[in-house]
Amino acid sequence: MGRLAKSDDPALVTRLVDTYRSHYRGSLVTDASREALFPRAFEALGRLRQDSSKQLGIATGKGLTGVRRILQLHGLTDYFVTLQTPDHNPSKPDPGMLLTAMAETSSSPKETIMVGDTTFDLEMGRAAGVRTIGVTWGYHDPAELIPFADAMIDSYDDLDGAIQRVLE
C-alpha cells in the first residue's frame, strides 16, 4: 500500500490497509461473482496437475483465509502444494513469497515460473531469480508487463507452450 500511495507514512499505510480489508470483506457478502476464475483457468490447472513433473503453488497478495475460501469454492484445494500470502511473507514485489515456496517444494529458481497479471507479480519473480510469464488479462495493462516477462500469453490455452518455452 505504501508503494501504491507513494508514501512511507506507517499511519497512512495502516489506515489504507484497514480500509481496503473492510471494503473487500464487504464485497464478498454482496458480490457472488467477485471470486470467479478467469476463463479456461480450471482446465489449465487440471492439465498442469496431471503432469507429475510439476508442482503448483500460489504466491498472492490475498490473505490466506481468502485464498483457502476461493480454492474450496472452486474445488482446487488439493491442486497446490504451497500457498504463500502476505500473512507470513513480505508483500510483492519482495521475493519472499517465492523464496518460501521454493524452499517448501525443494525447487530451484531455474525450474520455477511465476505467472502473473501485475507488474508486482513479475517483479517478484525477477527478484527471486525465476522465469516469468505475463498474462494479457487481469489488473495491469499488458504493455506494463512486457519488460518483466520472459513470455506473454493471451489465454490459458497458451500456458503449457509458454511454460515449455521459458524452461528451455
TrEMBL record:
Cross-referenced Pfam families: HAD_2 (PF13419)
Species, as recorded: Devosia algicola
Keyword set, alphabetical order: Hydrolase
Protein name (Swiss-Prot/TrEMBL): HAD-IA family hydrolase
Segments passing through the bilayer: none
Molecular function GO labels: hydrolase activity
Organism superkingdom: Bacteria
Organism ancestry: Bacteria, Pseudomonadati, Pseudomonadota, Alphaproteobacteria, Hyphomicrobiales
